């Protein structure tokens, strides 16, 4: 057979690459497991459901392409190949990313599992310390596990067209993240911590349930923002009634302590520093965008509308977008000289 002849030549010639595509293969030819010099194995567009354990002889494999086959689970033998750098297993019938395999892909930089039936990212992904690009578009994923935050080298997350409802706040720990694609999901809010992803250049949140963007978006290095087909708040005037602030005692005390921290000689400040529980609570304090005074538990959620292209210095047009802003009081809200609007949701 021509395939056997080419494999025999590959064995004899110490071939670095083996390609068997579009052959309707359902099993691997035994000769393939003897091409121990191979660094690339391309078996896409066949009918494979499993790989033989003898494939572990190909210890130098760096790229494995199993795209467009019939795999339902990651072949266990992949965990025995220590140098896999790139794994393509798109367009299969995967029900899961087998944790026992994933945790052993310690050298893998690129994992492409697009277009499968995977419903979760396994916790074992934390073992993929070298991972830079994760592609899992067109699956059934509902959550982004915090375990993925152990993959600090990630530069691209492709999770579009899934069933994700929430972006974890800890996403901000991925300081090397440059591209985040989460279009066509069920996400209603982008956490303010996205601003910690200061390398983020491309953000695609199209076709979700987002009403406004967080202030943290200003801290990203965005070049592209895609947000069409979201129920973004519109700049429409509505009647409002002047309301006086009534702050709870807990908030009043918190604000007094926060003010005291500006004075190094303050007795209140010195007393507060002796209470770890107080210091821990004050870590969540934020500043009013109008008066710049700090608040902790009580604030007024507002929004301002900006031209995304000019304000965020984008390369693409994204129109006017609403960005969340928090004010410490109604006094600040009713003061003059700012462009912040109270948020009004349709009933």
Name the structural class: alpha/beta
What is the percentage of strand-forming residues? 5-15%
Radius of gyration: 27 Å
**Regions with little confidence, pLDDT below 50 for 5+ residues:** none
**Taking all residues together, what is the mean pLDDT?**
89
Order of helices and strands: HEEEEHEEEEEEHHHEEEHEHE
Estimate the helix proportion, in percent: 10-25%
Strands of the biggest beta sheet: in what spatial order?
1-2-3-4-5-6-7-8-9-10
What overall form do the CA principal axes indicate? elongated
The separation of the N and C termini measures 71 Å
Number of beta strands? 15
Major β-sheet annotation: 10 strands, parallel
Number of helices: 7
Tag the structure with descriptive keywords.
347 residues, 14% helix, 7 helices, 10-stranded parallel β-sheet, 3-stranded antiparallel β-sheet, 15 strands, 15% strand, elongated, alpha/beta
Plain-language structure description:
With 347 residues, this protein is α/β, with parallel strands linked by helices. The chain has seven helices and 15 strands. The chain has helices at residues 2-12, 99-102, 249-260, 267-272, 276-282, 308-311, 330-333; strands spanning 17-19, 40-42, 63-65, 86-88, 110-112, 133-135, 156-158, 179-181, 202-204, 224-226, 286-287, 294-295, 300-307, 320-327, 341-342. The strands form three sheets. It has a ten-stranded parallel β-sheet with strand order 1-2-3-4-5-6-7-8-9-10, with no helix packed on it. A hairpin with a 6-residue loop joins strand 11 and strand 12. The longest helix is centred in the last third of the chain and has 12 residues, at 249-260. The termini are far apart. The mean pLDDT is 89.
């Amino acid at each position: 057979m021509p395939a056997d002849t080419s494999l025999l030549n590959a064995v004899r010639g110490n071939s670095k690459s083996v390609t068997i595509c579009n052959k309707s293969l359902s099993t691997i030819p035994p000769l393939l497991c003897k091409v121990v010099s191979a660094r690339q194995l391309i078996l896409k567009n066949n009918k494979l459901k499993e790989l033989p354990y003898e494939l572990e002889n190909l210890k130098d494999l760096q790229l494995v392409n199993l795209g467009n086959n019939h795999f339902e689970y990651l072949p266990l033998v992949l965990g025995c190949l220590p140098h896999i750098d790139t794994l393509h297993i798109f367009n299969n019938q995967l029900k899961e990313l087998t944790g026992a395999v994933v945790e052993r892909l310690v050298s893998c930089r690129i994992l492409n599992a697009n277009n499968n039936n995977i419903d979760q990212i396994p916790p074992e992904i934390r073992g993929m310390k070298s991972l830079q690009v994760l592609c899992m578009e067109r699956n059934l994923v509902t959550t982004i596990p915090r375990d993925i935050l152990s993959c600090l080298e990630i530069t691209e997350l492709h999770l579009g067209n899934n069933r994700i409802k929430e972006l974890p706040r800890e996403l901000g720990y991925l300081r090397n993240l440059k591209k985040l694609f989460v279009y066509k999901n069920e996400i209603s809010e982008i956490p303010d911590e996205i601003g910690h992803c200061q390398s983020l250049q491309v953000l695609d949140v199209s076709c979700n349930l987002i009403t406004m963007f967080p202030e943290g978006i200003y801290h990203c290095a965005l070049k592209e923002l895609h947000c069409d087909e979201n129920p973004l708040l519109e700049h429409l005037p509505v009647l409002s009634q002047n309301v006086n602030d009534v702050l709870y005692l807990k908030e009043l005390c918190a604000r007094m302590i926060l003010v005291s921290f500006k004075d190094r000689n303050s007795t209140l400040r010195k007393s507060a520093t002796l209470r770890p529980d107080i210091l821990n609570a004050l870590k969540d304090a934020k500043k009013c965008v109008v008066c710049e005074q700090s608040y902790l538990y009580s604030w007024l959620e507002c929004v301002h509308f900006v031209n995304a292209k000019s304000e965020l210095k984008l390369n693409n047009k994204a129109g006017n977008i609403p960005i969340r802003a928090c004010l410490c009081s109604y006094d600040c809200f009713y003061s003059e000289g700012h462009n912040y609007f109270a948020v009004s949701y349709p009933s």
